[in-house]
Amino acid sequence: MMLSHNLYTIKQEEHLIGGAVLFQDKKNKEIMYVGRIFIDPNEYKKGFGLESMKYIEKMFPKITKWRLETPVWNIRTNSFYKKLGYLEMYRDKESVYYQKEV
């Protein structure tokens, strides 16, 4: 993933605190998928996830739609994405699929 430029690190100064995996849609270059975003659990509730997502979205000004999925059971991540302005597109038994238009 690193070689294909899909993996990004999240740091505070030089301390690695997380990362993100992003994929651009192959057919529509205005759509980006957040495959994963992860923060070290020791760094939860400090605003790093929120600031990282905002920064990631600004890194790609030509992207008009951001999409991701998260497990239905994960209340923390579902709440997190809604806080960032992502809207639920649909869900199945296992996942909730979100989209944000910018």
Automatic annotation (TrEMBL):
CDD domains: NAT_SF (cd04301). Residues 1-102 form the N-acetyltransferase domain. It comes from the Bacteria. This is GNAT family N-acyltransferase. It comes from Clostridium punense.
